[in-house]
Structure formats: structure tokens, C-alpha cells
């Protein structure tokens, strides 16, 4: 009887959950349809966007609250759950297999905007009914939603001089009935590679002072032609952010990724892409291998490999660090290297204080390797940056600001750079930290960089900003969040306006490619970024702002900064945050709007809509399975291979070698046509990637974009 009652209770609970989910889904469908109908007229063009009404904003807040409260459970933003049986139409697969005539033969399938590149018959020509696997009404709504989502990303990328691919841009213009024209004004600007014999630290050609007045307003640096203009609040006409528009776009995307028909459609398209790749491999594997064998000189070992996600404090391996510690002790045992409580210590005295001798150290006793004990423990992972568990050794060997002015750390990095140059085909993009605790951080870091002449032809650099405002505020280092933003961005603006007054920082910025936002994503702030959120200068509480709050103000300042630097002919910066390693799906949604590319992206597997959007926009993702295995996700469960099969733009990165794209150089690494998309941009002699594979990837991409275009045309 007890078992029977328990079974009945379980059935009732499941039925109740299904009823609630059904009602919620129905309400969401109603709101989402209202959003689309209010924005997209019955006739083309479809790009007219207005504000989301208060009811929709309120519903988006409820969806967000549900996600934060029930993360990991079955709710509106949880992974779309269906049977493992692939829901691909037999007709669609049959068309895919048997309609192939030759690899590079043009296809006469229905395309809204046929690509100009060498085409194969990889793209099926089936009807839309077989493509969507949803009702006609739902298919039209889905296409409208995906179309607007791509328009949102294109808008924010162009505004900030970050990258949006040409191919989807062509389809969007075709949908709107316009002719696509390449506009290089929206492209990012990178520092040219240093030529042989050229001094990378020269300061004799720095631009003159513009004399602008700088002022932080609502968390964003504003520029004024003069102090009088600042008093009148008349800033220069730069792309300052519009918070209300951003929140409207964010709420739209939040509703989109929770919409039932959109999840159904995107889930099935992703399943099809995965199966389609398997068919491609069966049909073309030997042809690809033959093409690679016929490619002279180039193989995996001598094609260029770039580690785009690596932290400078862990860029060396364990053996390298151990060897350097022993070498430094052998040479500098009697040198004063550390100061504590007003007392200066030699290296020998420091190790004596720690009750150890470098001769006795091993890789095991160094204990910087992240293992199973760090899984789901970000605090323990951070402790692994302390050799032998001693923070004193971390300060001495892995910091830029210490008693010896970061000399040991600079030497280690230069040794890593020398190893990269000797390997020739390996490159890295290490991250250095700016915390935002004080205004002089940039000055100290750039002085360390220039004084130690840290330059390597196989390295460029990024700045990472840890999201630890709560730590600084709790210790009264900062009065409010706005001060942290000012400490991070104001010195960079000052060096851009008047480079000659900040020569070291101006030179250092030439070697920087972008900004990263880092910290433990699994920590929830419980705060939803909205129009009711406090302004940065009003955020005086000790609580940390949300991921979206951080990302918005970093993106906004980078946008204004890039506009100013592009006017001056200087290099611009990309926003490339850690994202999707853990935490809420809103992190990935925010990155879709603001980031040029991201690191990790694991949680994309939880949202078919976001995963499909990342595929359509070809947003680069630097994935680190070995690092994830020690922190958040077991190696066997990592979605890296799944993302690869579906065609997402992914790369492998180390994250932390100690613990577990270049710019214009790309022309040298990848060929002069590397900016072109598809097989035309691939030089197999340099990349060692088969043209067959490139053609397949490009045609599959175009086919998915074409489905959206055709779905929107059917609404005319």
C-alpha cells in the first residue's frame, strides 16, 4: 500500500509539473508572438524594432528568476529534453545522400542569396516542410526570431568594431531587400607585426595630445572637447551606449531562448547537423585524406597553432617552474628578494622561513597541478597558483609588482617565449591582470612590460579583469562599483588622448588585443540587470554585480574607447570573456550580444537556441577540456566533439599549462585570402585543412541561413 501511494504521489507530482510547464510555455508563446507581431510588419523589410512593453519585460524577469532559482532542473531555460533518436526526416537524409553529383558542382537549390564561392552539392534541396519539422505558423515565427537575433548581434558587433561574418550579413541584407556592400569601417584594427630590426618599444612617434576632457558618467567614460563642454554636458559624438535599447534586446533574447517552438526547431536542426557531418565523413573521408597527402611539406606539426586562452601566471609547465626556482636559488641565494612586516629577506632566508630547501622540491611537492580535489572547487583551484601552498612564492615568482619589480616573472615569460620561437609553429596569447583596485595598476604593469622588454614574435597579450568587486568593497578599497570601472578604463582613455604623457602605457597598449572578464561563474549574484538596477556610482553595497552587469559596462567602455582609438589610427580591442563554463545561461546570452568570442562555452549544450545562434553567427569558442575536467565537467562529458561535428567555430586551448588569432600575422599563417569565408579563404598549403571539408562547412552554414531567409519570404 505504501509503495502504491508513493507511486501515485510521484504521478501526481509529474502531472502537476507538466501542467505548470505547459501553462508557462503557452504564456511564453503568447508574449513572444506579441513581440514579433509588434516589430515585424506583414511585408518586408523586417528590421523595424521598437521597445518591448512592460508586460514582456516583466515576463522576462520571471523567466530569469526561475532560471536562477532552479538552475539544473527542468524549467523554461533548461536543456530541451527529447528522445535520443535523431529526429531527422528520412526524406531529408535521402536527399542529402543521393543528390550529390560532384563535390564542387554548383547547386540549383532554392537559395535566398547563393554564395559566390566554389560550391558542392552538400546542400539538400528539399522543401521547407522537411527542413523545419514544425508547423508552418511556428516555422515563420521561429525564422522571425532567429533573424532578429542575428540583427541584434550584428548591430552590437559593428558598433564596437568587433567581427561579424560576411556570409550571414549578406543573407540579412538580402532578406531586407538591400544589396550587401563590404564596409571595412566596421572592422577591428590590429597592430602590424614588428618587422625585423624594428624596436617594439619605441616612443619617438607617439601622437600628440588631443586635449580632451574625460569624465566618468553612469559607468561609461565620456569625452568632451573642453572643460567648458563638460560643464554643459556636451560630449563628443561617440557611440555611447543606450541602456534601454540594450535591455530591450536582452529581454527579447531571453524570451527567444525559452520559446518552445524555437527550442524544437533549433534542437532538430542541430541534431541534423551532427548526423549530416557523420554522413559527410562516410562519403568524403578518403577524399579528404588523399587531398592532405597530396599537400607537400605541411602536416599537423608544422601548421600554425595559436593558444588563444592562456593565463600568463600559469603559462609555464610545472617542470619549467621548478627548474627556474632551483636555478634562481643557485644564483641569487644571498639576494634580497622579499619584504615582510618591514623586514627584508634574502632568497635563502625566505626558503628558511618556509622551512624548505629548493633542492628537495619535486613536481609533486610543488603541488601546482589541479586534480580531482579541485572539481567544483574554484577556491582550491586558485590555491594551486601558490607553489608548495606558499603565497610568498607566488608573489615572488608569478607577480609583476613585488620587491624585485617582477623580474623573475618577466624572465620566466621570456623563456616561454623563447621556447615558442624555437618551436616556430606555436603561438600564445597570455592574459595579464588589471583588477581595478587603484588607478596606478596600468602604470605599474606597463612599466614592468617595457622595462623588462617583454616581447616575443610568437606572443600577443590580453588583459583580464577579475570580477571581484565584492572583495575590494568588503575591505573598503573601493567606495562603489563606478570607481572600479574608472580605475580600469580611465588610464587607457588618458593614454589614448595624450600618448606622449603616458609613453610606457601607450607602447604597452599596442601589444594588447582585447579584454577578458574572469572569475567563478558558478557564483550567483541573484541580481537581474534591468532599468531598475543601480548605476555603477550608486552600487555601494558589498554584493557583487551580476555577470551581465559587468559585461555591459565593460562592453560599453570598450565601444567608446575603440571609436576614439580608430579615429587616431590606433589598434582597437576585442571583448573576449570567459563565458559558459558554469552558471546561468544569461551569461552566454549576454556574450552573444557583446563578445567577439568567448572561452569555454560548455553551457551551450544546455540551450539549443543559443547553440544554434552561435553556429549561425560563427562565434569563436576557445574550449579547454583538460581544464574543465579539473573544475566543472568530466572529460568524457565535454561537448567539444559534439560542437565540432555540428560546425560551431571552436578551437582547443590550454587555459593553464602549469595546472593541467593573431592579427595581421594571419596573412602569413593562413594565406592572403584568410578573411574570405569558405573554401576561397582556405590555403591548404598553409592550413593543412582539406578544401572538401571547407566546402562542406561553408555550404552547410549557407543552407541553414537560407532556411531562415526562405521562411521569412513565405510570410510576404
From TrEMBL:
Its EC number is 3.5.4.6. PANTHER family: AMP DEAMINASE, AMP DEAMINASE 1. InterPro entries: A/AMP_deam_AS (IPR006650), AMPD (IPR006329), Metal_Hydrolase (IPR032466). Belongs to the metallo-dependent hydrolases superfamily. Adenosine and AMP deaminases family. Pfam families: AMP_deaminase (PF19326). Homotetramer. Pathway: Purine metabolism; IMP biosynthesis via salvage pathway; IMP from AMP: step 1/1. PROSITE patterns: A_DEAMINASE. The keyword Chaperone does not apply. GO terms for biological process: AMP metabolic process; IMP salvage. It comes from Galemys pyrenaicus (Iberian desman). The keyword Iron does not apply. Its cofactor is Zn(2+). Keywords: Hydrolase, Metal-binding, Nucleotide metabolism, Zinc. One of its GO terms (molecular function) is metal ion binding. SUPFAM superfamilies: Metallo-dependent hydrolases. This is AMP deaminase. GO terms for cellular component: cytosol.
Amino acid at each position: 500500500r505504501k509503495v502504491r501511494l508513493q507511486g501515485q504521489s510521484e504521478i501526481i507530482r509529474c502531472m502537476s509539473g507538466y501542467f505548470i510547464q505547459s501553462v508557462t510555455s503557452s504564456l511564453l508563446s503568447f508574449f513572444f508572438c506579441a513581440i514579433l507581431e509588434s516589430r515585424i510588419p506583414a511585408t518586408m523589410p523586417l528590421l523595424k524594432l521598437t521597445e518591448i512593453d512592460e508586460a514582456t519585460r516583466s515576463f522576462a524577469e520571471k523567466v530569469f528568476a526561475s532560471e536562477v532559482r532552479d538552475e539544473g532542473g527542468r524549467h523554461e531555460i533548461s536543456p530541451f529534453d527529447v528522445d535520443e533518436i535523431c529526429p531527422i526526416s528520412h526524406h531529408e537524409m535521402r536527399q542529402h545522400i543521393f543528390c550529390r553529383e560532384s563535390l564542387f558542382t554548383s547547386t540549383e537549390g532554392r537559395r535566398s542569396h547563393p554564395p559566390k564561392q566554389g560550391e558542392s552539392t552538400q546542400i539538400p534541396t528539399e522543401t521547407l516542410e522537411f527542413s523545419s519539422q514544425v508547423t508552418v505558423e511556428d516555422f515563420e515565427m521561429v525564422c522571425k526570431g532567429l533573424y532578429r537575433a542575428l540583427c541584434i548581434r550584428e548591430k552590437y558587433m559593428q558598433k564596437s568594431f568587433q567581427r561579424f561574418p560576411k556570409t550571414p550579413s549578406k543573407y540579412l541584407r538580402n532578406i531586407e531587400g538591400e544589396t550587401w556592400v563590404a564596409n571595412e569601417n566596421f572592422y577591428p584594427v590590429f597592430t602590424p607585426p614588428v618587422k625585423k630590426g624594428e624596436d617594439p618599444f619605441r616612443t619617438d612617434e607617439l601622437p600628440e595630445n588631443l586635449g580632451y576632457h574625460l569624465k566618468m558618467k553612469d559607468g561609461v567614460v565620456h569625452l568632451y572637447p573642453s572643460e567648458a563642454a563638460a560643464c554643459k554636458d556636451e560630449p563628443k559624438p561617440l557611440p555611447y551606449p543606450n541602456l534601454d535599447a540594450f535591455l530591450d534586446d536582452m529581454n527579447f533574447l531571453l524570451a527567444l531562448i525559452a520559446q518552445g517552438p524555437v527550442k524544437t526547431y533549433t534542437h532538430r536542426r542541430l541534431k541534423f547537423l551532427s548526423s549530416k557531418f557523420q554522413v559527410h565523413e562516410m562519403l568524403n573521408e578518403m577524399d579528404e585524406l588523399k587531398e592532405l597527402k597530396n599537400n607537400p611539406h605541411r602536416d599537423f606539426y608544422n601548421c600554425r597553432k595559436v593558444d588563444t586562452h592562456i593565463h600568463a601566471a600559469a603559462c609555464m609547465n610545472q617542470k619549467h617552474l621548478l627548474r627556474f626556482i632551483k636555478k634562481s636559488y643557485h644564483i641569487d641565494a644571498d639576494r634580497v628578494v622579499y619584504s615582510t612586516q618591514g623586514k627584508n629577506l634574502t632568497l635563502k632566508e625566505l626558503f628558511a622561513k618556509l622551512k624548505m630547501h629548493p633542492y628537495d622540491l619535486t613536481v609533486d611537492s610543488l603541488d601546482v597541478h589541479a586534480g580531482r580535489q579541485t572539481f567544483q572547487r574554484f577556491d582550491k583551484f586558485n590555491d594551486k597558483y601558490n607553489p608548495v601552498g606558499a603565497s610568498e612564492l607566488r608573489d615572488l615568482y608569478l607577480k609583476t609588482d613585488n620587491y624585485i619589480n617582477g623580474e623573475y616573472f618577466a624572465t620566466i615569460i621570456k623563456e616561454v617565449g623563447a621556447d615558442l620561437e624555437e618551436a616556430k609553429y606555436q603561438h600564445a596569447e597570455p592574459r595579464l591582470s588589471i583588477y581595478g583596485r587603484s588607478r596606478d595598476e596600468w602604470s605599474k604593469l606597463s612599466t614592468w612590460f617595457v622595462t623588462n622588454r617583454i616581447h616575443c614574435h610568437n606572443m600577443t597579450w590580453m588583459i583580464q579583469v577579475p570580477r571581484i568587486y565584492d572583495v575590494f568593497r568588503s575591505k573598503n578599497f573601493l567606495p562603489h562599483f563606478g570607481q572600479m570601472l574608472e580605475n580600469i578604463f580611465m588610464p587607457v582613455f588618458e593614454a589614448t588622448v595624450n600618448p606622449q604623457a603616458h609613453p610606457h602605457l601607450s607602447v604597452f597598449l599596442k601589444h594588447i588585443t582585447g579584454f577578458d572578464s574572469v572569475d567563478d561563474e558558478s557564483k550567483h549574484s541573484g541580481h537581474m540587470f534591468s532599468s531598475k538596477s543601480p548605476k555603477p556610482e550608486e552600487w555601494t553595497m558589498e554584493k557583487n554585480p551580476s555577470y551581465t552587469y559587468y559585461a555591459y559596462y565593460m562592453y560599453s567602455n570598450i565601444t567608446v574607447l575603440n571609436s576614439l582609438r580608430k579615429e587616431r589610427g590606433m589598434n582597437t580591442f576585442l571583448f573576449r570573456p570567459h563565458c559558459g563554463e558554469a552558471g546561468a545561461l544569461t551569461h552566454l546570452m549576454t556574450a552573444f550580444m557583446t563578445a567577439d568570442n568567448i572561452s569555454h562555452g560548455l553551457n551551450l549544450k544546455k540551450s539549443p537556441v543559443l547553440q544554434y545562434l552561435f553556429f549561425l553567427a560563427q562565434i569563436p569558442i576557445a574550449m579547454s577540456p583538460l581544464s574543465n575536467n579539473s573544475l566543472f565537467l568530466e572529460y568524457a562529458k565535454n561537448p567539444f566533439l559534439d560542437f565540432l561535428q555540428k560546425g560551431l567555430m571552436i578551437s582547443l586551448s590550454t587555459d593553464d599549462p602549469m595546472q593541467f588569432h593573431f592579427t595581421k600575422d594571419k596573412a602569413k599563417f593562413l594565406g592572403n585570402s584568410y578573411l574570405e569565408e569558405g573554401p576561397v579563404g582556405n590555403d591548404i598549403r598553409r592550413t593543412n585543412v582539406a578544401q572538401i571539408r571547407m566546402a562542406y562547412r561553408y555550404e552547410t552554414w549557407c543552407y541553414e541561413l537560407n532556411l531562415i531567409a526562405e521562411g521569412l519570404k513565405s510570410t510576404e
